[in-house]
Amino acid sequence: MSESSARQQLLVTLFEAFNRHDANGVMACMTDDIVFDTAVGTEIYGNRITGTADVKSAFEKVWGGMPDVSWTCTSHSVFGDRALSEWIFRGTAANGLRIEAEGCDLFTFTGDKISRKSAFRKDRPPLPAKETAAAAS
């Protein structure tokens, strides 16, 4: 398998782990000194989180706050030691408001793992909570 194909497969593996909410599976795709720039934050790059423990904790907080969160990947492209993944982010917050927005991640590889992940997501207003059958009657 070529390096490009291996990296493309690593991205598939990464998003499968994200959608299982499998922190160990996600972190197995990343270097110990991983740098994660979030989609939201006060800095020009969002929020910067570094190192395995802190990045793992950040992902676990997203899964805890939105138990149904998922990323539907529409494309993975690898360009040497860089990659782009495009996806649709969906999740429901504790207050019932839903997020559904397109986004992408820019990745940098070091060897056979991801050493940098920078997330970008459309800034779309939350969608109303889904009405349940009990609330409708």
Describe this structure in words.
The protein is of the alpha+beta class. It has a six-stranded mixed beta sheet with strand order 2-1-6-5-4-3, with helices on one face. The chain has one domain (3-129): Nuclear Transport Factor 2, Chain: A (Roll). It is built from four helices and six strands.
Descriptors for this entry?
six-stranded mixed β-sheet; 39% strand; disordered C terminus; globular; 137 residues; Nuclear Transport Factor 2, Chain: A
Q: How many individual β-strands?
A: 6
Question: What class would the helix/strand composition place it in?
Answer: alpha+beta
Please state the overall shape, judged from the principal axes of the Cα atoms: globular
Tell me which oligomeric state these chains represent: single chain
- Proper CATH architecture: Roll
- Pick out the low-confidence regions: 132-137
Overall number of domains: 1
Estimated share of beta-strand residues: 35-45%
Helix content: 25-40%
How far is it from the N-terminal to the C-terminal residue, by CA? 57 Å
Widest β-sheet, arrangement of strands? 2-1-6-5-4-3
Might you state the CATH topology name?
Nuclear Transport Factor 2, Chain: A
Integer-rounded radius of gyration: 16 Å
CATH class: Alpha Beta
- Mean pLDDT level: 93
